[in-house]
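User: I'll paste a sequence; please echo it back and then give the predicted structure.

Assistant: Echoing your sequence first, then the prediction.
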Amino acid sequence: MRRVAEKKKVKQYRPRRSCPKCGSGVHLAEHKDRFACGKCGYLEMKR
């Protein structure tokens, strides 16, 4: 019997937003209702 190779799930690339205070090297974490910067604490609410 030959084993069939399982298909791996590939995560879709989603461009991340940069923090306006810290610059382009720091990205905002995406939560359910907000974007947050872990470095400076910048918070942006989703609509």
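The radius of gyration is 17 Å. Residues 15-47 form one domain.
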